[in-house]
User: Fold this.
Amino acid sequence: MKKELTIGLIGFGCVGFGLYEILNQSRLIDARIKRIVVKDRYKRREIGQENFSFSVSDILEDEEINVVVELIDDSEQAFEMVKKAFAAGKDVVSANKKMIAEHLDELLELAEENEVSFLYEGAVGGSIPILRNLEEYYNNDTLTSLEGIVNGTTNYILTKSNSGIGYDEALAEAQKLGFAESNPTLDVDGYDSKYKLSILLKHAFGLTVQPKSLFNLGIRHVSDHAVSYAREKGYRIKLFSRAEKLGDKVVGFVAPHFVKSDHFAFGVNDEFNAVVLQGLFSDQQLFLGKGAGSHPTASAVLSDISALKFNYKYEYRKSESNGEVEFSNDFFVKIYLESKYIEAINEVPFYHVDELFQSDHINYQTGWVKFSELKTFDFNHKEEVSLVVLPEPLRESIPSNKMANRPLLENLYT
Ligand code: HSE
Assistant:
């Protein structure tokens, strides 16, 4: 049965204002914002001051409001507010990927206890309806892998690097356009992508994997040489969130990848996101759309609001049916590792080396490494090291004849 929706909106930043605009424009959705709560009383905003309240209890205690839309930045504050909204019997729509990734199971329990819906399509992939598709369309056995670009800011920066626009300038543009997080380290070091990956793992494979257990390497140290290496080989570099079934395990991580021209994500540019699913029988499918920005993200929030009209809830069927599948870091991955300092390369154990290059100012090595060992390095904080994953399938093991080949670079130039 359709229900009347009266919204209390918490937060009026880029997405909050976007939602306000499109709700006013879209006469198709019969929902109205009754109250908007913001933190900063003195900030200049796009609409008059009389539209705002400054206390969340104005929403929580208003019985007419049956939907809380939470669009604030601070994930811990958001967590407290969402719990209170559930306790007050209100459905919640959020786009707060960090909060959801870190607290999903607890939030789901509370939503169930209070018999309310909790929807968050806007948290992953911006305008792309990936969560609802994962929920509704794929059953547990048939989905084998998921990979793609789920951060608009980094894709924008990487795209601009192809036309010679530097990192700082591109990041400043992404901030101006409202794509970047207020702390852009979350974007550029791959944290935002891993919060999204954690949410995707739940909906794609039924797994709860805390973000702190997931490896994330961002794009800050993608070197000019890595970009020219990509150009020479006909690759492009994309920051991928990636998860797949490998044997009876599921593996996953976030890192820059070289992408071949026949990959669906190759031509995905600017703030566009793309998720490529691989199914046992469906083969590859691409979900593409704007992954950041005011209206695209607000459109996903709007879609959740409209789903609430019909009391839609995610069912998490894969969590219930996934008996044996476990998350694992036990696999091999082929990487490109570059540094001015050979010691920095030699620190990482390679199980097989394919290419070695040494000069007085640049050294790199390509080959297979054990992911569980790679994961122990904090490459986001190793300024001097550039790591990019090569376009090869992940492997459970590598042939033992390859294991013998573990040469180390020698310091020929000092
Ligand atoms: N900072 C995020 C991005 C916003 O760039 O993708 C959308 O989640």
